[in-house]
Each structure stands twice: as C-alpha cells, then as structure tokens.
Specification:
The protein is α+β, with helices and mostly antiparallel strands. It is built from 4 helices and 9 strands; from the N terminus they run αββββαββββαβα.
C-alpha cells in the first residue's frame, strides 16, 4: 500500500495514536489506579495457629489496582479465625491464610471440656519414648522403674491405658513421628502429651519429678477400639477413687426407753387385814 510509504501520512497517524493514548487510554488507566478500597491488613505479627483478635488487624484504604479479588474488606469477618501460616505486619489477609478451626496440631487443646486435662511428660531417653515411633491417637501403658524407691517395676493402675494427643519436639512444634519426613534430619520427640483425668494427672506429675518412665504401645488403630481402652481405664479410675459408703455405727448405743413412756409400776396392793 503506497499510502504508508508517505512519511507525512505515517507521521499524522502516529500523532493521532499518541493523542488517543494521552487523552483516552491514559486517563482511564490513571482513574483505575487512583480508585481506593478499604481492606483488612495485619497490624501485629501473628504466628501460625494463633487466633486472630481485634488488635492484630486494621482496616486501611489502599489503591484497588492489582488488588487480589478475594482480599478481606471487613475486620469482623477476620476476627475469631485462626492463622494457617505466619502473618507479618502489613500483609493482606486472604481466605487461604485463615481457617475457621485451629490448626490440626493444636485442635486437641481447643476440645478440652473440663472433664479431662492435657498433661505432658518428658521423654528422657530415646528408648523410653518407643524409639520415636509414638504418634497422636496411640494408647500406651506407663511403666515405672523403681516405683516409689521400692526397686520394683510396675504399671500404676491409673496409667494402664492412656491416650497420646501430641508428640512434641524440643523446638516446641508437634513432631508427627508416624509419617515419613522429607527433611534430611528427623526431629525426635522431647515430650508426650496425654489426655487424662485429674487423678491421672496428679500421678503423672509425681512420677515426672524423679521416676523413670517407659511408654509401652498398647494399641494403634481405629478411634472406636481406642475408646474401649479408655473407657476401661476410666471405669477403673472411678472404682479406685470411689468414696466409701457410710456404714451404720456398729457401736451405736441401743435405744433407751424414755422413762416418760415406760409403763408405770403397778401399785402395791395393801396387805390384807388380819
């Protein structure tokens, strides 16, 4: 086409295109990036697993250009949720970063209802903790060496069947020792947390001080079967700590007849007259 060989025509076309960009497209672009939206942003660092409180977030106005479509706009929709990952100050809050329920490794702490308690004991050697093979949901027996300085190795009746709800490494993070770890070095458990009754917690606290505890795996499998072990242990605890029934006092004095109600002495008949 010969028209495009004319430099004047080409120059005019370039000028028209430039005018369209300057006075048409550019204002629209500037308008879009100048629009503001109110969003929720992190005001205080939040660790993974923490519950979001009102002081951890703030509502701020930012440019809407290139803003994620699913960012939260209302603090009320964020407060009360749990952080799935660590959140730094200034981070936008997206649904993928929050959860309605606590993280799986912390869920057991939010399910306590006052009936039972979470109690941790130290795994003092590699062998006493089943060589790092323990995991949440296991039913174990607590075996005590040199129980109460008697030289005997026993399993306290309160600790025949105990449920493990967490296995924790020395870093404070739960060590899921039942699954393969892709890291070069596997974190070994440092403590084990049990779900126990108050009576069991007191026994564990005493043993933790100076006793030598060994954990023997009793059962690993379905929750239904594990619940049967725990039910048997709870029944034994109830039997061990049942209050004795009051028995009647064997030495109680026999009832004494009320003199007022005792029959009157018969009157003595007068002697017959001679």
């Amino acid at each position: 086409m010969s028209i495009f060989k004319n430099r004047t025509v080409i120059g005019v076309i370039c000028i028209v295109v430039a005018l369209l960009i300057c006075f048409g497209i550019t204002p629209l672009f500037n308008k879009s990036i100048s629009q503001k939206e109110e969003i929720v942003r992190v005001a205080k660092a939040v660790n993974a697993g923490e519950q979001i409180t009102a002081d951890m977030v703030q509502s701020v106005e930012v440019g809407s250009y290139n803003l994620p479509a699913n960012v939260f706009h209302d603090t009320a929709s964020v407060v009360g949720k749990y952080a799935v990952t660590d959140l730094a100050v200034g981070d936008y809050i997206l649904p993928s970063k929050l959860s309605d329920a606590p993280a799986a490794e912390n869920a057991y702490l939010y399910n306590l209802d006052g009936t039972k308690q979470a109690m941790s004991v130290t795994i003092k050697t590699f062998a006493t903790g089943l060589s790092g093979k323990l995991q949440s949901g296991d039913i174990v027996s607590v075996i005590v060496a040199d129980y109460m300085d008697t030289g005997e190795t026993v399993t306290p009746p309160e600790l025949q069947y105990v449920e493990i709800i967490s296995v924790t490494a020395s870093t404070g993070y739960d060590a899921n020792t039942g699954e393969a770890n892709t890291e070069d070095e596997k974190e070994l458990p440092s403590t084990v947390t049990f779900l126990v009754l108050p009576e069991q917690a007191r026994v564990l606290a005493e043993l933790e001080q100076d006793a030598k505890l060994h954990l023997a795996l009793v059962y690993r499998g379905t929750q239904e079967v594990a619940a049967e072990f725990i039910a048997a242990q709870d029944a034994l605890i109830e039997e061990l700590y049942a209050e004795p029934e009051e028995s009647p006092d064997e030495n109680a004095e026999s009832e004494v007849a009320d003199p007022a109600n005792s029959p009157a002495e018969s009157e003595v008949a007068p002697d017959n007259e001679l």
